Amino acid sequence: EIKNVNSLRSLGRAVDYEAARQVDLIEGGGTVRQETRHWNENDGRTHTLRVKEESDDYRYFADPDLVPCDPGEEWIERVRAALPVLPAARRTRLAEATGQETGGSASEGIAIVVDRRLDDLVLAAIDAGADPARALTHAEHNLSDDRSGDLDPAAFAKLVNLEVDGKLSATQAKTVLATLVAEGGDPADIAAAAGFEAMDTSELEGIVDGLIESHPEEWGRFCDGDGKVTGFFVGQVMKATRGQADGKVVTQLLNARKG
User: Fold this and answer.
1) Is 147 a residue whose pLDDT tops 90?
2) 12, 173, 195, 259: which has the highest count of C-beta atoms within 10 A?
């Protein structure tokens, strides 16, 4: 019997402590006494309050209002089948569908999406042909749980693939997605109405070459392997193109010129 247990957290800690204490006691050749112990929340330990010789001293008795309960396996399976998919299983399911590891930083994104109840949307979008990793990224960073649950999975999949195919930049895709959530519609039509078009590669090459020429110091650092400078050049290109350039394409062009 343990006194001074004032919360579920304290209950768990007290049980864990007592279980370990009694195991150590028995393995050391001792005997567990029938006693009342006091839980010290600050120390995370129990100590003896009083010892009672017989269990009758505790006046144990059956509750007259509680009848014996022995549920059969069939009933247990029926209840289990009626339960919704629990969060742990949903996280595992989403991780497998998106090819993510269940541990490490990637699992944080999985947990966020499941917590927002957007995992069914991502799974449905994947079934509709969306790139799994990119769909997960949008759900984690660009969607919230208030209205995004009503997003059409097929439209979401189409948007994701417009970006993956290079027809929209990441910035443009985020803008189209916001409109898609607020108003619905076709992602391609929304992009066209906003004037989002894939930039011609030759035009983009000209911008990159101009930046290299006007920033020789930064270009030298890039060629020497300073990866941080990549962000500088990509940012300058995005500024010059008002967000229409694809950052991945810009990086490829930079690396190609690096030789």
Assistant:
1) no
2) 173
Specify if 170 maps to a domain: yes
The answer to whether residues 188 and 224 belong to one domain is: no
pLDDT of residue 54: 67
173 domain residue, yes or no: yes
Q: Region 94-117: what's the mean pLDDT? A: 84
Domain count, the chain: 3
CA distance 76 to 68: 16
Whether 43 is covered by a domain: the verdict is yes
Rounded to 5°, angle at Cα 199 from 198 and 204:
150
Residue 183: name the closest of 193, 196, 195 by CA: 193
Domain that holds residue 238: 201-258
C-alpha closest to that of 250 among 219, 188, 207: 207
Question: What's the distance, CA 170 to chain centroid?
Answer: 20
Task: Tell me the C-alpha to C-alpha distance, in Å, between residue 210 and each of 5, 59, 97, 104, 173.
Answer: 71, 89, 42, 40, 26
Q: Residue 131 pLDDT more than 60?
A: yes
Q: Are 208 and 255 in contact (CB under 8 A)?
A: no
State whether residue 198 is helix, strand or coil. coil
| 102 lies in some domain | yes
Q: Which two tokens stand for residue 37?
A: 């112990």
Would the pTM count as exceeding 0.70? no
User: Domain of 250: which CATH number?
Assistant: 1.10.10.410
Pairing mode, if any, of strands 35-40 and 2-3? parallel
Taking the C-alpha atoms of residue 9 and residue 11, their distance in angstroms, rounded to an integer, is 5
